[in-house]
Amino acid sequence: MTSMITAARTVTWPATATVLTVGVEEEFLLLDPATGANLPVADQVMAALPESLHRRSRREMRRSMIELVTGVCTGMRDVRAQLSAQRRATADIAEAAGARLVAVAATPVAEPDVGVPCEQRYQHLAEKYGPVAHDPAACGLHVHVGVPDRELAVQVCNHLQVWLPVIRALTSNSPLFLGADTGHASWRSVQLLRWPSIGPTPYFASARDYGRTVADLISSEMVLDEASIYWYARLSPTYPTVEIRVGDVCADVDDTVLVTALVRAAVATAITDIRAGLPASRPRDCVLDAANWRSARDGLSGDLIDLRLGRARPAWELVDEFFATVSPALLETGDLELVLDGLNRLRDIGDGATRQRAILHATGDIRTVLAALAAWTQGG
């Protein structure tokens, strides 16, 4: 891995941008169809992927996980087409390897293999973090949005802060963990807090301030490098993008496209506000932590904390205000109706966590939940 300084030099930030480009990374579990336990067959699945998809796939620290990455997209139609194609192709290959590809964000039944892969980076993480590096798999959604320059990207992260708990709630898809209902909509979010570099993004005055903080964290040896700083919104160490990492992997492509469109619109709205001289809200750290915890617990089914006011409000009130805030940007990209339809669908059927619980309560069988998730993953 490159150091922070090298990464900053190798990332080329475009001078101008008209339409903000997007790219999407989705992490998936490979599950045993009979037991629901995680299956460590990621290497087999990756080896069988078509070359074009193999180049954009990544193995993770758990051998039961695989990450699929789109190319750079300018519109949601392209995002949908790429997500659908790579989910279906990988699901077929996983089936041939005796596994199901499932878009679920926490380990629902068991992780029999918690061994660390032999790659040097993973070995270093295991040495540094001990048992945390052997935790069961957790799968996220990472949305990259191209931003014209690094200085602006840092300010965008500041402005996004108040809406990230809402984005997490929209993606909530991990109520089950090791065979039990956790009482949380996003158990993944709770589990990952065991890692020291995961959490809300600090406020930064400038790109210089951001870079200095990253360098200080690396010097402290709390992290290996810039790539192992997992703030909910960060400057990608690889691409000239703002990367939003707060979300669970979504159960189906419709949800992923909805969230991707909203994230791009939120970034575009932040850029407009920054250029108009509007300051970012700066909630207290403790309230920020509370807001992120509340969204992980309740998802869309309860209250969320409005970080502009510092108090709890019904989740859907905040979702509606988020939509209203980013609507001009959605209108400009032609995504307004897509997002409106997507939000109305979520209002009707619930987030991924709600859908999982409905099946579990109706059948009492976690394997039925996982079969439904596998079907949703492929578009069923």
UniProtKB/TrEMBL annotation:
GO terms for molecular function: ATP binding; glutamate-cysteine ligase activity. Keywords: ATP-binding, Ligase, Nucleotide-binding. Its EC number is 6.3.2.2. Coiled coil: none annotated. GO terms for biological process: modified amino acid biosynthetic process. It catalyses: L-cysteine + L-glutamate + ATP = gamma-L-glutamyl-L-cysteine + ADP + phosphate + H(+). NCBIfam families: gshA_cyan_rel, PRK13517.1-1. ATP-dependent carboxylate-amine ligase which exhibits weak glutamate--cysteine ligase activity. This is Putative glutamate--cysteine ligase 2. It comes from Actinoplanes campanulatus.
